[in-house]
Amino acid sequence: MSTDSLVLVANRLPWLRGPDGGWRSSPGGLIGALHPIAHRRPTTWVGLSAAADGVTIHGDDSSGDGQQQDPWPCACGCVEVRVHSEAAESHYNGVCNAALWPTYHDAVIPSEYSGENWSSHEIVTRAFADAVASHAAPGAVVWIHDYQLQLLPKPLRQQRPDLAIGFFLHIPFPPPEIFMRLPWRQAIVDGLRHAHVIGFQTAQCLGNFRRVLSMTADADLPWSPELQPRLVVAPVSIDTARLAAAAGAQSTVFAAQQLRKQLGDPKVLLLGVDRLDYTKGLVQKVRAVQSLLADGSVDSSQVIFLQIASSTRVGNVMYRQEAERMSRAFGAAIGATSTAAHTPIRLITQAIESDSLTHYFAAADAILVTPLRDGMNLVAKEYVTVKSGLRNAGQLHAGALVLSEFAGAAYDLIDAYLVNPYSIDTLREGMMHAVHDPLIERQRRLDSLAATVANHTTFDWADGFLATLSKAAQRQVIELRPRARRVA
Ligand code: G6P
Questions:
Q1: Which of 148, 275, 304, 427 could disulfide-link to 312, CB 3.0 to 4.6 Å?
Q2: For residue 307, which of 247, 255, 246, 360 has the smallest C-alpha distance?
Q3: Domain map of the chain by residue range?
Q4: How far is CA 262 from the centre of its chain?
Q5: pLDDT band at 140; cut points 50, 70, 90
Q6: Strand 77-81's sheet: what is its strand order?
Q7: Domain 6-236+459-473 fold
Q8: Probe ligand 1: pick from 8, 9, 12, max atoms within 8 Å of CB?
């Protein structure tokens, strides 16, 4: 098995063209976690390229796939999977975002299951299989990422049985009671079980998948010795050393001071950083902040709550509706809490580049990470790393993390102020602690959180997963090879 040749496969390539025509990093935690891995070893990244709104544009060019080296500002080789724009649209908006995403996030909103879109999903999967099969070196390690590509292990293994195939799910795997609603549940389980290793963010997700496996193991998905994937819990993480170093730089300290100054030097700066997604609990969050300001639990003249909610998946009607719902909730909250002299609630919907986000993290006294459901949430890990990096550089900053108990990150970050985002009372309580707890208590929690994150970086995540994958793939080759007859 060739271990130095890694193929990462994700729905998106790591860079996309922004509205101004320039290159920028693709959105989402997946990209942030994988980027450092791709920089560290020879890697080929296979994915769709996308416009800023997430819809692939190739006009009528549905032929082949293109090896892209140059305009991509990426340390790895990028292979662009080419599919017709209509197939890409139905795959991305119709199946991934309208069916799988809501189902996997505990059906926070209803899903739409369309057979026509599913055919496009299969077409896109085959295009991915062809692209990986024709670019992967013999015996290469192929690591497939996320819910958009769950069918891929099967056609890939059929075309290239020599590959070691791993799959990692970045989002939650739902309880069987919800998963079984999917009309394509068997195809999904069958696709996944062709991987040698399947990774999940939490033990709960792995347990859910195990129950689904046993429920679908009937005549349609017969047991086979070759199709016994290893299931592992492997929480995704971040490049803590790089981020902590960036946080401690003088330029970051200066930029954070400038930001606070631009915001009118509030005594307390509360921050939120999310994609504008209905799973993120943005409406509940702003209502909780509004109620704290309204009843004087926190002094509205001394506080700013700044929410960055970057627009995302705007081709999908649910996201457009969520954007409207959020605008209304923020509009009402801003109207109800502002005076002529002071606006304590602020909203930014533009995407902010990751370097600038570091400045926002550095400036904020607390971050409110309160999704209704989330696979992991790397913003929580980034924030505590930045604040601790500042502290190690001699800056006397405390930082508090208010974290939803329904984010995968809550499994490990137990020293956060954990809240139930569906309950305005516990949201309020968590925020009150983050603002009013004694400095020494906030620092103790921050140190413990930052140590937990630093103990398991994105490199530990990838190394652990890939080591398990190499072993599992090798073991299967050995087990399937006929045993030599013993000569008496
Ligand atoms: C989450 C998903 C990723 C996805 C990202 C951005 O992090 O787990 O797979 O890429 O959101 O979503 P988008 O639809 O814009 O790719």
A1: 275
A2: 360
A3: 6-236+459-473, 240-455
A4: 30
A5: very high
A6: 65-68, 77-81, 43-48, 6-12, 141-145, 164-168, 197-200, 230-233
A7: Rossmann fold (3.40.50)
A8: 12
Three-state DSSP at 178 gives helix
Tell me which residue has tokens 């599919």: 83
The strand pair at 65-68 and 77-81 is best described as antiparallel
The C-alpha atoms of residue 63 and residue 131 are separated, in whole angstroms, by: 11
Q: Between β-strands 400-404 and 366-369, what pairing exists: parallel, antiparallel or unpaired?
A: parallel
DSSP, collapsed to helix, strand or coil, labels residue 306 as strand
For ligand 1, atom 10, the nearest C-alpha belongs to 28
Residue type, 301: S
Q: What is the mean pLDDT of residues 336-350?
A: 96
Work out whether strand 15-17 and strand 23-25 pair parallel, antiparallel, or are unpaired: antiparallel
CA-proximal residue: ligand 1, atom 4 (nearest): 28
d(CA 292, CA 299): 9
Q: Where are the beta strands (DSSP E) in 202-255?
A: 230-233
Residues 301-330: pLDDT tens digits?
999 999 999 999 999 999 999 999 999 999
Fold of 240-455: Rossmann fold (3.40.50)
Q: Half-sphere exposure (CA, 13 Å, Cβ side) for 33?
A: 27
Q: At residue 256, does pLDDT exceed 50?
A: yes
d(CA 39, CA 61): 30
User: What is the reported pTM?
Assistant: 0.93
Q: Quick one: tokens of 172?
A: 């939650």
